[in-house]
Amino acid sequence: MSVGHQLLPDNLGPGYAIQSSNQTYVYLPTPAAGFANNYQATGQTIPAPIIAGGGMIPTTITILGAAANSTTAVTDTLTITYTDGSTAPITVILSDWTLNGGTINPDAADTTVATTSYRNTATGGTDPTAANLYTTDITLPANGKIIASITFPVDPNLHIFATAAS
Question: What is the pTM of this model?
Answer without folding.
Answer: 0.82
